[in-house]
Amino acid sequence: MSEIKKRKSLNPEGQSSGIVVNAVLLFLVIIWTIPTFGILVTSFRAKDNVFATGWWQALSDDSGFTLENYGQVLAGRDYKLKSDSNNNSSVKGDNMAGAFLNSISVTVPAVVIPILIAAFAAYGFAWLDFPGRKPLFILIVALLVVPLQISLIPVLRDYQKLKLNGTYLGIWLAHTGFGLPLATYLLFNYISTIPRSILESAFIDGASHFTTFIRLILPLSVPALASFAIFQFLWVWNDMLVALVFLSGAGAKMQVVTVRLLNLIGSRGQDWQLLTSGAFISMILPLTVFLALQKFFIRGLMAGSVKE
Amino acid sequence: MGDLYVPDKKGNTGQKIVTAVGRIIVSLFIPIVTFAVLWAGFIFLRDSGASQLIITVVAIIWGVGGVAALFILSNFTIQRLPVHWRKRFVPFLFVGPALIILGYYLFLPAIRSFYMSFMGKFSKDFVGLANYKYIFTDRTMRLAFLNNLEWLILGTSLSLIFGLLFALLSEKSRFEKLAKSLIFLPMAISFVGAGVIWKFIYAFRPAGEAQIGLLNALVTALGGSPVNWIVLRPWNTIFLIVILVWLQTGYAMVILSAAIKGVPVTLKEAARIDGASEWRIVFQIIIPSIKGSLVTVGTTILIVTLKVFDIVYAMTNGLFGTEVLASQQYKQMFKFLNYGRGSAIAIVILIAVIPVMWYNLKQFGKREVF
């Protein structure tokens, strides 16, 4: 709707300024993308070339491109073994498929759980009255700054006692705890601006807070929920610290993508050119999620729900 | 509900008792079944040797469904309480889970840190304010404070400015989706990946050798001599801040862009009809309308800069005068194993953010609730 209106309202003057806008935008986008583009080119180069010349020269000289880095990351790295008879043989390491599925099992619930809990809390703080409402909200916002490093050791000790170490539930709850302050803060800022009149009309119709929240507030908050979902998804997907602490108890079976990538570069960091291709492989899913959710917050937020 | 309309007849009381008993059984039965199913799921995920694909599917259904089931169950239980109890419990249904989880994962550890910040290296003897005295007098710590201030001011303002610029420009452009996706791209790269990317920008080779770093290649192509950016004091901190801005602009852009979409079209149209220039519309209509979102984004990025650790850790590990508070905290805790000093730094970071929080919360007290 609003899209059509905007197009119509463009006057001839708007057309000429459109060229300027696109030119400036193009310039900035190129600057922003060059670092990533450089590493994309590098990921297709052989190890020796990477350290001999700059990536931009790969486009002009004849050093050529190779899929070697991707092969090593996707199919599992070659480990050279020396047997007794001095014959060299090579063995494939773990491939990425298992780590990918593991990362998905960790990430999806670790995104949905905090969003749901935070949305409930945001509604509670925005529209319900209860003793201690203000100090508790201040506390939650203040917890935004607590560096999560201080929680790792005490929580790990409790997990070991409760046998939660190396389980999905354990890492979901940890990610929920670390993501909740930001989630509650962002969703509160959104849910509290929903016009009072919308809620009032629901209560007049006899809806309970629970029904109002599920039927009215959640659907209205989709743009905010989608925005936060993306950030929490990226954070959990790219996290290494929390996964190393709470999942290493379960061994290679529970390795997530970032940890598997780190293992790829070898104990002395000798194969770190593999990270160039690894970075792109691990980026595929977050980027897909971004593109999929983009339409939710690109659409006008409250269009049509209230008359201004 | 239905029994309200049942006409008065004999046997009505008996019927009522049956309904009541039925209700109690249902009230107990549903929670028990829910917990049993959840427990079975937990055991399966922990101990099963099934294929990874099956485990992934079960984990997602169990995790996502579990939290929804627990909320529905709590609501189901609360609806069965007498009215005056119900009113008291409903707010707890909404904010309770968040408070419990936050209390355990962040609040208790924070309190524990506060306590440990007054204790010695091994948390056994009380040392009073000695750790704080160290923080405010040590030379490295003073450098960390100054650097962190630089991160806070430059990192936050540049991310906000570029985020707003991208949001405004892409709004007017036909290539909105493409531009946004490309600006957002850095956020999707894992930290390990981002470290590699920027090492290739700042890489340094002595003069005369082929430069593999983009920045030095540009400098030498223009006739200059190569610079070792990462060790160049005091500018190296700024080069690290550039990485943060590169990463955070996508975040600012997404949120601000959503807010800009929320500015009523009618408002902008009216201004255009009155002959206002695009600049005036931006500064006098759009920016005031999205002030709330600007504060939100500014606050979150500011907190990121206060906690900044990964970038410094990966690029310089705090060497060459790039130390910040969080990297010092990490070193004190995990390298020197000095829990007292590490905790004290965490508490100082917490205190530093109070003015921002105060500003954010000024509005909160004025809200009307139901």
Features:
heterodimer, A: 308 residues, mainly alpha, MetI-like fold, 2 domains, two-stranded antiparallel ribbon, 14 helices, 2 strands, 3% strand, globular, disordered C terminus, B: 370 residues, 16 helices, disordered N terminus
What is the CATH architecture descriptor of the largest domain in chain B?
A: Orthogonal Bundle
Biggest sheet strand order of chain A reads: 1-2
Largest sheet of chain A: 2 strands, antiparallel
- Content-based structural category of chain A: mainly alpha
Individual helix count of chain A: 14
Order of helices and strands of chain A: HHHHEEHHHHHHHHHH
Distance, first to last CA of chain B:
26 Å
- Overall shape of chain B: it is globular
Task: Offer a concise description of the structure.
The complex is a heterodimer of chains A (308) and B (370). Chain A has 308 residues and is mostly helical.
Description of the structure:
The complex is a heterodimer of chains A (308) and B (370). Chain A is mostly helical and 308 residues long. Chain A is built from 14 helices and two strands, in the order ααααββαααααααααα. Chain A has a two-stranded antiparallel sheet with strand order 1-2. In chain A, strand 1 (78-82) and strand 2 form a beta hairpin. In chain A, helix 13 (257-264) runs antiparallel to helix 14 (274-298). The longest helix of chain A has 32 residues, at 96-127. The model of chain A is unreliable at 1-14 and 300-308 (pLDDT under 50). With 370 residues, chain B is mostly helical. Chain B has 16 helices and no strands. The longest helix of chain B has 36 residues, at 12-47. Chains A and B meet through helix 1, helix 2, helix 3, helix 5 and helix 6 of A and helix 1, helix 2, helix 3, helix 5 and helix 6 of B.
